[in-house]
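Explain my protein.
***
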Amino acid sequence: MNKPRYPYNPILTMNIDQPPQPVYRKNVAAVIMDENNFILLAKRRKAHNHWQFPQGGVDENETFDETLFRELGEELGTKEFKILQKSSQTFRYNWSKKNRDSRGSGTVGQEQTYFLVRFLGQKKDIKPDKREFDTIEWVPFDQVLIKCAKIRKPLYAKVLQEFEQRIKEKKCPPPAKTIQKPLKETYSQESIKSLTKFLQEK
């Protein structure tokens, strides 16, 4: 009996008829808070009224934290941020066919990890990259989903739900200033009598 030319391989056989799994580009995004717990939104340069969180793709051999600070430095011109929380899950979205074709990377969309971060610097030091954004704006938590781009609302709602408790935490108030009252001068009865006598003689 002749042996088959190509030995049976159950692993290869199982995978032959399975469609290829879609590939998503790794990406990080930042929900940035100021000292008043307002949230930063950035307006995309080549899109009508498209407000979003800063984000960027993860490069090869780069950690998510490294990507986060690199992207914030590139897009906002500063790295004065502190990570407060990382999302417990990733969030996927698909690109349009036009976007996929223009990228030519074989990826179908992005798989995002979100970070809640605190801005520690001076707001005047934030200089948006004009190739990416026209301007930025700080908005209250309850206005983020109203202002952000419509296409991003469903995903942002899930992200903000996870970060909501931390965002709404009340900051510890600064210690109250102690006002030192002037000491009242005290006089003995003898001093008062001497002063009274002195004034009467004048």
Summary: The first helix runs from residue 10 to 16. The radius of gyration is 31 Å.
